[in-house]
Write a structure and sequence with these properties.
binds phosphoenolpyruvate, 2 domains, TIM Barrel, Alpha-Beta Plaits, about 35% helix, binds manganese (II) ion, about 350 residues, 8-stranded parallel beta barrel, 4-stranded antiparallel sheet, alpha/beta
């Protein structure tokens, strides 16, 4: 249930409503808009009596939240959520472009790629130090050494760092280095991991499970939100379909659907959604035209030498071209590219 406070409700009146909700054994989550405060009452028992709240001073009205995901819904938070990652506002009018290798492979590869991403106009650096590989015999990532290299690349370029965390027990270690926790497609329904990042207070980019419906995707986001972490961004990275000419199928529909159902920022990953570098630019353009708030793109200086996902990685020159094209599409959509990071070393 949602409780809508009156525009002039006082802090004391809001606190009294929250106290009553909590005394009934339910959770109260506040959404403070420009004029009014909404209080979502979340409970695993359906029985909430609106009447006992309607009579309280400062309460305007109540209504049921129709979606199973409450805190992720636009009903709870009608305005877009913008998440600040070291000054990069993901989910604002500005488009964010995150570029970098699939895997951190070594110092030279990462620094060369980071320099190229920032030079090309990118805003943030991606790179996996813990890799969820389909085969146990494939490269599994550099681990903490890879995280240290990402931190060095951030220092060098000023770009915030996106990197994957695969297990709840890795959250403290990865959190020491990452600016954004990436939850991979294979872990979208790893509920212990969702809770662990939900308790961390660091921004999270949740990737859609390759076979997950949009509702399941939003229910996973709800796990993180319900643990108190409001800084969740969603990433459409392609789903499994019968089509096999590409690695996955970009669910471009998901972009406007998500934008209508949720207030959370939406990022598209055309590298994984296509699996082929030659399709990445087209899908990047389409994603921004469809209303996405950002892109995450795999970039490698020598894709043929990449230890993972070389076939879908762009060379730096291509990535620079993509940034320009996306800038033009952003402008057509009444948006702009985000400002580039300033080095504060
Ligand atoms: C990645 O970003 O390199 C990755 C493994 O992505 P996904 O979880 O979408 O497959
Ligand atoms: Mn990859």
């Amino acid at each position: 249930m949602m409780i809508v406070m009156q525009a002039n409700a006082t802090q004391a009146q809001i606190s009294a409503v929250v106290a009553l909700v909590e005394s009934l054994g339910m959770q109260a989550h506040l959404s403070s808009g420009k004029d009014i405060t909404l209080i979502a009452v979340v409970s695993n028992t359906a029985a909430i009596d609106p009447d006992q709240f309607l009579l309280m001073p400062g309460v305007d009205r109540t209504f049921p939240i129709t979606r199973p995901y409450k805190l992720a819904s636009r009903e709870f938070h009608p305005e877009n959520t913008s998440i600040s990652v070291k000054g990069l506002n993901v989910g604002s009018e500005e488009i964010a472009i995150i570029g970098g290798p699939c895997s951190v492979e070594g110092r030279e590869q990462l620094m060369e790629t980071a320099d190229a991403v920032v030079e090309a106009g990118g805003h943030a650096l991606r790179g996996g130090a813990f890799k969820p590989r389909t085969s146990p015999y494939s490269f599994q990532g550099m681990g903490e050494e890879g995280l240290q290299l990402l931190a060095e690349a951030r220092q060098r370029t000023g770009m915030p760092v996106w990197t994957e965390v695969m297990a709840p027990e890795q959250v403290p270690l990865v959190g020491k280095y990452a600016d954004v926790f990436q939850i991979g497609t294979r872990n979208m329904q790893n509920y212990d991991l969702l809770r662990a990042v939900g308790e961390s207070q660091k921004p999270v980019m949740l990737k859609r499970g390759m076979s997950a419906t949009i509702e399941e995707f939003l229910m996973s986001a709800e796990y993180i939100l319900s643990c108190g972490n409001r800084r969740v961004m969603l990433c459409e990275r392609g789903i499994r379909t019968f089509e096999n000419s590409t690695r996955n199928t970009t669910d471009i529909n998901a972009v406007p659907v998500l934008k209508s159902l949720t207030h959370l920022p939406v990022i598209v990953d055309p590298s994984h959604s296509t699996g082929h570098w030659e399709y990445v630019e087209a899908i990047a353009r389409a994603s921004i035209a469809a209303g996405a708030d950002g892109l995450i793109i795999e970039v490698h200086p020598r894709p043929n030498e990449a230890v993972s996902d070389g076939a879908q990685s762009l060379k730096p020159e291509r990535f620079a071209g993509l940034v320009k094209q996306v800038g033009a599409i952003a402008e057509a959509m009444g948006r702009t590219l985000a400002e580039q990071p300033k080095i504060v070393a």
